[in-house]
Write a structure and sequence with these properties.
Layout (H helix, E strand, L loop, with lengths): L6 H18 L3 E6 L2 H4 L1 H16 L3 E6 L2 H10 L6 E2 L2 E2 L3 H25 L4 E5 L6 E5 L8 E6 L2 H8 L3 E5 L1 E3 L5 E3 L2 H11 L4 E6 L17 E3 H10 L6 H14 L3 E6 L5 H7 L6 E4 L4
Helix pairs in contact: 4-5, 7-9
Length: 289
């Protein structure tokens, strides 16, 4: 449906966004990007537009991305069958080379190029650049899947200070030179914590935390850390939502002001979350906030 707005209505929308713009100008917002919003071309364009708009009004945006479907596609093209244990990709030496090639190469540079085409200034980094994401073996069953041991955040600060949008692919390394496949949510949580970000936005393929996982109308709009524990205990937070909320808790403990889990399938959901009163998804905050 094509909705037409008058100039007065457009001006009113911008005026209503002003308090939210003032809140985030000069602050750091980390966006974890992946899932359906990444593979759907129209949504990808809209996410890039949202990020560039925020950058243009003075928000310091850091984009952390995954690329699981692209990795699986490349593995199949090269004759390797993707294998997962507890939701994590089994990553042998050949697979970690593919991960590095796809994430730090094709996906990262495609996103940088899109941001530039939308009018932004972006530079791509992998977690190996400047040893941004230092890691160790997470589980020997998984091969070169990394557990984050340290974040060297200097390269990201340098790019932000020079007015760029850092675009970070989640490939880490250790001091022996081994490359590791790092879970995107985990990497985003640690990076946002190291930056003391104002907000971490976790884009996913569901509306947020639901009281009934099969009913989007049961979305819980806001919870505290203590309420999150209760939702774990009651089974409301279960299955694939457990590791995602775990990453949110990690981010909050590491210094992020607040975190939101939201549906990346909704057009312009980033702007809805940051620049409107209604927001989008589930907002998670510390109890004292």
């Amino acid at each position: 449906m094509d909705i037409q707005f008058s100039n007065a209505q457009r001006a009113e929308v911008l005026t209503q966004a002003l308090p939210y713009i003032k809140r985030y100008v000069g602050k750091i917002v980390v966006v974890k990007y992946g899932g359906n919003a990444m593979v759907n071309e129209q949504l990808k364009q809209q996410v890039m537009e949202d990020i560039v708009l925020l950058w243009l009004i003075g928000v310091k945006v850091v984009l952390v991305h995954g690329g699981g479907p692209e990795i699986s596609d490349m593995m199949k093209k090269l004759g390797k069958q993707p294998e997962f244990v507890d939701g994590l990709r089994v990553t042998d030496q050949e697979t970690v080379d593919i991960v590095q090639m796809v994430l730090a190469g094709k996906v990262n540079k495609t996103l940088v190029n899109l941001l530039e085409m939308k009018g932004g200034r972006a530079i791509g980094l992998s977690g190996m650049d400047g040893r941004l994401i230092e890691a160790k073996v997470k589980d020997t069953r998984l091969g070169f899947v990394g557990e984050v041991t340290k974040i060297h955040i200097g390269p990201v600060h340098d790019l932000l200070d020079k007015g760029y949008i850092p675009v970070v692919s989640t490939v880490g390394c250790d001091r022996q030179g081994n490359a590791y496949n790092i879970n995107g949510d985990t990497a985003a949580a640690h990076i946002a914590g190291a930056l003391n970000a104002e907000r971490l936005i976790m884009m996913t393929d569901i509306a947020g935390i639901l009281r009934d996982k099969d009913d989007p109308s049961t979305l819980i709009p806001e919870i505290t850390l203590s309420q999150a524990k209760e939702l774990y205990a009651s089974g409301v937070i279960s299955g694939g939502m457990i590791p995602k909320v775990d990453c949110c808790v990690t981010a909050l403990h590491a210094g992020v002001k607040n975190v939101v889990i939201m549906d990346g399938r909704v057009p312009h959901s980033i702007l809805m979350e940051l620049l409107t009163n209604e927001g989008a998804g589930t907002w998670i905050r510390r109890d004292e906030a």
